[in-house]
């Protein structure tokens, strides 16, 4: 099987719009054009990377390749599916609109709440996780909290982890279609990367990235897996005790297994493809850290997986 890769980082915007004909803002269109060749970093021999929709039809590219090309966009939405249909891709090679509606639910921040509940049930060391302050707000929903700390509000769908800090959460936050979470004093941003087939949840590896305090993604560390794991373990080192010096590594491995269990229970057989789950290491006190087990689920390709696949190609 050979693929035709499409870089469409406007995916979350298209999910938010949830329409078949979506046009991203001009600056995003420019970004997609400038970085259209990015999938070449991980595409396999014989795959095609689409850099110009107008240069050839789908049929012409298949003729040149000598076989049928299966579309592999950065992320799936109704908009990219219908754009590919208009371009000539057979409907049987793509998820249906009904399937994409289900995937949209999994990609939304509202899904983080039930997912975290399943994840925490599978994680054997709950005392190592941050206290949960998450709630999804929608319609006439209201969220209040008497605790005297700031929170961050994120819309149901947004790219690059954009968020708005709310300094006084004890005041009601009304009518925001958003996920509300505590504003943590973080020491590290990292993600666990997975790929779901029809039968198994595969753990691909780690990614470590830098982000602004509000969560806005900046860049990934372009390193091999042992170096990335070392960064995570170093951030988790305060978890170690004299009685359990290897607790940071144990916690990380148990977190991976807990995600595999939760993904098997909630997504296996219902979603196929790559996904990344964002975490952070939060400083609770000068000597204490905990893990935020799921900030968001990126149900698509991401730069962490690009880094993993790129290094595997070397």
Report on this structure:
With 314 residues, the protein is an alpha+beta fold. It folds into 2 domains: 104 residues, no CATH class; 153 residues, D-amino Acid Aminotransferase, Chain A, domain 1, CATH 3.30.470. The protein is built from 9 helices and 14 strands. The chain has a 5-stranded antiparallel β-sheet with strand order 12-11-10-13-14. A 4-stranded antiparallel β-sheet has the order 4-9-6-7, with no helix packed on it. A hairpin with a 4-residue loop joins strand 10 and strand 11. Helix 6 crosses helix 8.
What's this model, at a glance?
This protein has 314 residues and is α+β, with helices and mostly antiparallel strands.
Structural class: alpha+beta
Shape: globular
What's the total number of strands? 14
Domain module tally: 2
Strand order in the largest sheet: 12-11-10-13-14
H/I helix tally = 9
CATH C-level name of the largest domain: Alpha Beta
Mean pLDDT: 88
Strand percentage lies at 25-35%
Provide the CATH topology of the largest domain. D-amino Acid Aminotransferase, Chain A, domain 1
Major β-sheet, in short? Answer: 5 strands, antiparallel
Unreliable spans: none
Any idea what the radius of gyration is?
A: 20 Å
SSE arrangement, N to C? EHHEHEHHHEEEEEEEEEHHEEH
CATH architecture of the largest domain: 2-Layer Sandwich
Distance between the termini: 22 Å
């Amino acid at each position: 099987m050979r693929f035709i890769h499409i870089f469409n980082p406007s995916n979350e915007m298209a999910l938010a719009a949830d329409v078949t004909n979506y046009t991203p803002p001009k600056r995003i269109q420019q970004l997609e054009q400038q970085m259209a060749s990015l999938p070449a970093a991980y595409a396999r021999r014989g795959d095609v990377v689409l850099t110009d929709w107008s240069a050839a039809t789908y049929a012409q590219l298949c003729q040149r390749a000598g076989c049928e090309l299966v579309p592999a966009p950065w992320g799936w939405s109704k908009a990219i599916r219908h754009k590919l249909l208009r371009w000539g891709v057979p409907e049987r090679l793509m998820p249906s609109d009904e399937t994409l509606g289900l995937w949209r639910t999994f990609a939304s921040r509202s899904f983080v709440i039930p997912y975290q509940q399943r994840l925490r049930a599978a994680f054997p060391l709950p005392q190592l996780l941050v206290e949960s302050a998450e709630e999804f707000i929608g319609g006439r929903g209201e969220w209040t909290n008497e605790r005297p700390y700031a929170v961050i509000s994120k819309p149901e769908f947004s790219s690059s982890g954009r968020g708005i800090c709310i300094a006084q959460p004890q005041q009601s936050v009304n009518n925001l279609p958003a996920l509300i979470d505590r504003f943590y004093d973080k020491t590290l941003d990292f993600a666990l990367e997975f790929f779901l087939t029809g039968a198994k949840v595969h753990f691909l590896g780690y990614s470590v990235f830098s982000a602004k305090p509000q969560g806005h993604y900046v860049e990934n560390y372009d390193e091999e897996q042992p170096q990335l794991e070392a960064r995570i373990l170093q951030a988790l080192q305060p978890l170690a005790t004299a009685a359990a010096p290897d607790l940071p590594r144990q916690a990380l491995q148990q977190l991976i297994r807990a995600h595999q269990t939760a993904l098997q229970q909630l997504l296996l057989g219902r979603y196929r493809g790559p996904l990344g789950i964002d975490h952070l290491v939060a400083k609770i006190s000068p000597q204490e850290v905990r893990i935020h087990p799921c900030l968001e689920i990126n149900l698509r390709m991401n730069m962490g997986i690009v880094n993993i696949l790129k290094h595997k190609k070397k």
